What we know:
Blueprint: E1 3-6, E2 12-16, H1 21-33, E3 37-41, H2 47-58, E4 62-65, E5 69-72, E6 85-86, H3 91-100, E7 106-110, H4 121-129, E8 133-136, E9 145-148, E10 155-159, H5 165-174, E11 182-186, H6 193-205, E12 211-213, E13 217-220, E14 230-232, H7 237-249, E15 253-257, H8 269-277, E16 280-284, E17 287-291, E18 299-301, H9 309-318, E19 320-326, H10 338-346, E20 352-356, E21 359-365, E22 372-374, H11 384-395, E23 400-404, H12 416-422
Amino acid sequence: MEVRVEKVEGIRGNVIAPPSKSYTHRAFIIASLAEGCSVIKNYLRAQDTLSTLKACGAFGVRIEENDKVTIHGSGEKLQTPKRVIDCENSGTTIRLISGIAALDGEVTLTGDASIQRRPMQPLLDALKQLGVEVYSTKGNGTLPIVMKGGNLKGGKVKIRGDISSQFISSLLILSPCVKDDVRITVTTPMKSKPYIDLTLDIMEKFGVKVENKNYREFFIKARQKYIAREYEIEGDYSSASYFLALAAMTHSEITVKNLFKETKQGDRKLLDILKKMGAEVTVRDREVTVKGAKLQGIRANLGDAPDLLPTVAALACKARGKTVIKNVEHARFKESDRIAACSSELSKFGVDMEEKKDGLAIYGTGRLTGARVNSVDKLGRADHRMAMALAVAGLAAEGETSIENAECVEISFPDFFNILRSLGIKVR
Length: 428
């Protein structure tokens, strides 16, 4: 699908942030492990989260889906799937499901061509330390993977923290279900710490406590039980970022509702970035308003918020002066190599930039020119966050912008373009 947009200015309006994708994934998985029946309210219904829900169902968990999701927990007694579990394009699904897949029998996990390129070896090595027989069928640490579980011994586990926090979240969610205490040692500096905070938060809400020693070591006492509950998913700062950036870049004023002031989501960092760039930001209990202004280049460390890279890069293109985005090398292992994708596609708007090993240097002039851009990278990988960031950049650019393969927004934000239309923006 090709989407065309043109420059807008002076928008005034309100939007509602979709539910958090990260919380939705974790709620589905933990409720599937819990004892009793959980009700998940205000959940995100998108391709990624439905992949997780289908995977949970493949383990014999009874699920009822309508305006809310009712999950009849397994009490940690999962059934061996009858067939291969296809996690499609969801990296979060494959990494979080890999942990609980080790609880029973032989399981094969796979995904689409893009997901099959993403690294899994650190998680596979960690699961082996817990007593799981697991291997990559390609022999290179990527999907498909086969594991033979059911005999998890617990104990000490060492794992790197600089590739994906999802590996550690997967181990944390699994750990209460094994026979003995688990002690996870992180051997390299931790990236994306807020995602760990988010995992620990929802684990505690379902009854499991974890001792966190400065993100270097985690201790999980054995025989803790996840207890079913009613749980409401909060709004997603990642998805909201595109509308907040749009306001800042187009001299508009947009309020995004359903954003909790007190949140564990690391992408709340965008509010500080917007303030530093010169936008006016007002935070209330469950909403954020951004009023646009002339933006200035800044230095931004996105080590704990890699999903913000496309949004911040788009903002930097509109800002005047140099913006340096650093400490985000792990964004190269997302749906696409996002550093390379930002450099390739955003530069088409007439902006000079340098691709660094761990980020970007962007030389904004305050003026963008419409362009023909693509959400799919040179390796054929569609990236939903690139599609949305490119659309926002196009709305701040002179002339028409065409975004190819824009249908990939279905992965995390199916209503993205409809919400733009609700603000009076023409989307063709």
